[in-house]
Amino acid sequence: MRRLLTFCGVLFGCLLSLPLHAAELAIVPPKVTLTGPTAQQQLLAVEQDATAVALADRTATVTWTSSDPGIVRVDASGMLTPVRDGIAQITAQFEGRRTQIPVTVEQSTTPQRWSFTQHVQPILTRLGCNSGACHGALAGKGGLKLSLRGYDSESDHFVITRQAQSRRINGLEPAKSLLLLKGARRIPHGGGTRLEAESREDRILTEWIAQGAPAARPNEATVAKLDVFPKAMRGKPGDKFRVIVQARMSDGHTEDVTGWVRFGSSEDQVATVDEDGQVTVAGNGEAAITVVYGSFVATVPMVSPFPNAIAADVFRNAERRNAIDPLILTKLQELNLPPSPPCDDATFIRRVFLDVAGILPTPSEVQQFLADSRPDKRAKLIDALLERPEYVDYWTYKWCDLLLVSTRKLQPPAMWAYYRKVRSSVEANQPWDRFARDILTATGSNLEQGGGNFYLLHTDVAELTESMAVTFLGMSITCARCHNHPLERWTQDQYWSLANLFSRVTMKNGQQPGEVHLSAADSGDVLHPRLNRAMPPTPLDGKPLPLNAESDRRAYFVDWLTAKDNPYFAKAIVNRVWRAMMGRGLVEAEDDLRETNPPSNPALFQALSADFVASQFDVKQLIRTIANSAAYQRSSIPLPGNAADDRFYSRYLVRRLSAEVTLDAFAAVTNVPTPFTHVYNGVENQLAATGNYPLGLRALQLPDSRVASPFLETFGRPLREQTCSCEREADSSVGQALHLNNNQSLNQKLRAPNSRLNRWLADNRPPAEIVRELFAWTLHRAPTERERREFEAELTAATTPQARREALEDLTWAILTSKEFLFNH
């Protein structure tokens, strides 16, 4: 175990034993400066613990006072307004307790200059004027088109102040401006009433117009950071909290922007939030209250512990197999979720075979493991599985899904070269950073440098950029192609700066079928569609590369991507592997990493990612670490107190086997291989015979998603058309049930003359022995007394060879289509 992860485990293990401090009354923000005559700031009075987690909101029940109302006033709701320059103390009193904060007033006599970008556009966004359903739509509404959520300030200012002969504003009589009259619906407006008369928003817009409706000034302060208060909340269903947001500006002053941000909740079943930031606890669990303001985003955790009665020693005595476990136990204790006990050895061997290698263990492997008395036998089994060829098959298939290995867009020689690159990398346990570098900087023949086929799949620069982001950063930036991302901080400018890193890849046809030669050109840029100019090639949040730089831009990007301090690269693959092993990503979905979708266990995510980097990006070591944890080895059987948990790993999450694993399992149990004799060629559903896949090849060894298989298609095999985890269908369906009943995928295996079933019958084995063997091959356990009695009775009642064969086929079918077989548990 790596030193960093071990340290974090010890640290969080110690935190389990720390006592909770008594709640104290506090005011947030803890310090306020009001800048300008129109500044205002909402204060909150909260009960908080020693870690500044808000336990109750007392804002409406405390008594607010100002030490000098001649400097700053505070009303009964906790709202501050400036009077004159100076410093005063604001006090909150509640049930005999009091707390206070200093408030500074400055520039109270300086005339307020409203900003188009910092005040007008946020107001229009809050009112919904530039939303996709209103004037932010692609074609606008009613002859007025604004940029979606205000991403193009220059254009919006022109549209509002100059377009349509400037009739939307009235500088001589601002209150009669069409912008205000329509918003307040003093004249007909299809969008209804958006602007309340005499409201703060109405006053700001009116004063801005009276000031000449100026555009953004070159030197005006811009938002540098958002501060959200309280920093965290903990409550029970029915509790209410208020969230406020401060914008910290580039010149150092702050503004209360609570009224102009967009609030949301990551889990409405746990907590809801209205447009004013009023949070209501709706259930138990954890939710992130999200805040979006322009291109800035922030989150606040809301924890609602489960109402379980848990003995004090449950967490203290819980098993810790490695440093993952204290981090998970800390979260479980915070949520009051009891951890399930460890699974038994029979369950573990089946589980780990499926999760690490995608195969079922044989009865002899199960017996040998159960008979092993060594205390470290589970760790040794994990090590052995990681060295098996089936491990290579399984994880090669996973990464081929991710990288879209298929003849859908690639000619067969190119597809095979791509597949061989992926497989050889898995087999050699190539570090993930080197694997990414090989693919993204590939040069030369795509048949020799198989990773170069990544570029053949994505010949459009925008599509390439988006696919790269999902593959190696675990995030979708597609929205930013046309406008600033609505749920992330990525802007359209950042998108096209990133895309320009991939604009100089040239491709020329080679001499062999399917061959293309890739090279880095020394010229060529992709243009920003709105600005109609090339953006400096820049990684996300990275440093720009000069437009005239002669080096391969891709190499510059990969240096940024694989740097040890890159905040996205390691987390993306760690989250994918964690989900594959644990059934749910620390961030779900696995390719939706964004600030407004925070991890269910941030401390674990950070520690595990840091450990992955410290291991030199060793994927096999990451799998080993997860599989050796007590969290992975917990029972899947829910306790009364954790049955509702599907996010925090208090138990192993049961999940359906993938299509390929299921089909291979059918073949393994019956000892009848699956023939793969046709591929889809050209037009979808047009089949062509192929001899590329000899009998005995397993589904997990197929390189191409275009190999025809009704079973794989019905049970959710992805088409490998788009880089998205959503391509694989993991849910059960009526179609799958019908397929198992009527299709020949399973029935032919059960009836095959050379099947394991027919061999048992040919050997004239007694019913008791057949039943024991059947359960050993399928469920890897002995039958219960009831199962043994009923199965033996069915076989004994069959008096003819055909009846006996049909009875065994039916019994085997019943097991192979049962939840116990089709799910990993």
From TrEMBL:
InterPro entries (UniProt xref): Big_2 (IPR003343), DUF1549 (IPR011444), DUF1553 (IPR022655), Invasin/intimin_cell_adhesion (IPR008964), SbsC_Big-like (IPR054604)
Domain BIG2: 21-104, 222-301
SMART domains referenced in this protein's UniProt entry, alphabetically: BID_2
Keyword tags: Signal
Pfam families: Big-like (PF22359), PSCyt2 (PF07583), PSD1 (PF07587)
DNA damage is among the record's keywords: no
Signal peptide start and end residues: 1-22
Protein's recorded name: BIG2 domain-containing protein
